[in-house]
Every structure is written in structure tokens, then in C-alpha cells.
């Protein structure tokens, strides 16, 4: 298996989700082709729990990628990694030249 050099050694798929109305009250999810990126994957270290429910921070994973202006990523996108799907909650730049992008995500289930 080929690994990327450095910290970004996990291959992730970033795809856009489109909810298409079906019938009176249902939606059907469709996805863009998506792009593969090398990412550094980490989990948050502190959260507040109340009866085993996360109360303050719904972020379950951080994905740090090298981004470019050709690939605008927003909260309309999802990350697929290791058979699980993560909804992007926030995106923020980690540096001024806008090279490194941090995706703050919440795990929403397994990949169908």
C-alpha cells in the first residue's frame, strides 16, 4: 500500500451531497463524483458529556488537508473514510496563505 509522506497519511473521499425531494415528505441523497485527498485524521481531546451524550461539541473527527481554490469545500460536503461517513460542520484555514484546511466533522454513519 502506498502512503503519503508526512502527517497526511490517510486517504479520504470528499463528496458533495444533494438531497432530492421524493414524494411528499422524503428525500433521496445523491452525491457528486468527489475528490480523493491525503489527510491527517485526529479526534478532539475534550468534550462535555451528560449521561453519555455529548452536549457541547458535536465534532467527532478533524481532517486536515492541503486544499486549493479549484476545490471549494463547504458544509454541503461529506467525508468518507474507513467505511464511515462524516458530515462537515465547519471548515477553517490553518494558515494565512490558505494552503492547509481543517475540516471539523461529525460521524453520521457507515458508507452504504
Summarize the model shown:
With 112 residues, this protein is mainly beta. The chain has strands at residues 10-22, 26-31, 35-42, 49-50, 53-54, 61-66, 77-81, 84-93, 100-110. 0% of the residues lie in helices and 56% in strands.
Q: Please describe the biggest sheet, giving its number of strands, its sense, and whether it closes into a barrel.
A: 6 strands, antiparallel, barrel
Please tell me the overall pLDDT.
Answer: 83
Rg computed from alpha carbons, rounded to a whole number of angstroms: 15 Å
CATH homologous superfamily label: Bacteriophage SPP1 head-tail adaptor protein
CATH architecture: Beta Barrel
Portion in strands: over 45%
The total beta strand count reads 9
What is the string of helix and strand elements? EEEEEEEEE
Strand order across the largest sheet: 1-3-6-9-8-7
What does this structure look like?
With 112 residues, the protein is mostly beta strands. The chain has one domain (10-110): Beta Barrel (Thrombin, subunit H). The chain has no helices and 9 strands. The protein has strands spanning 10-22, 26-31, 35-42, 49-50, 53-54, 61-66, 77-81, 84-93, 100-110. A hairpin with a 6-residue loop joins β8 and β9 (100-110). The model has no long low-confidence stretch (mean pLDDT 83).
Amino acid at each position: 500500500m502506498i502512503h503519503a509522506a508526512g502527517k497526511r497519511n490517510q486517504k479520504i473521499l470528499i463528496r458533495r451531497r444533494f438531497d432530492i425531494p421524493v414524494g411528499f415528505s422524503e428525500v433521496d441523497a445523491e452525491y457528486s463524483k468527489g475528490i480523493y485527498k491525503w489527510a491527517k485524521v485526529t479526534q478532539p481531546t475534550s468534550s462535555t458529556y451528560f449521561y453519555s451524550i455529548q452536549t457541547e461539541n458535536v465534532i467527532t473527527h478533524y481532517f486536515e488537508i492541503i486544499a486549493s481554490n479549484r476545490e471549494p469545500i463547504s458544509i454541503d460536503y461529506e467525508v468518507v473514510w474507513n467505511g464511515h461517513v462524516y458530515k462537515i460542520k465547519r471548515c477553517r484555514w490553518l494558515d494565512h496563505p490558505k494552503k492547509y484546511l481543517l475540516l471539523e466533522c461529525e460521524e453520521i454513519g457507515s458508507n452504504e
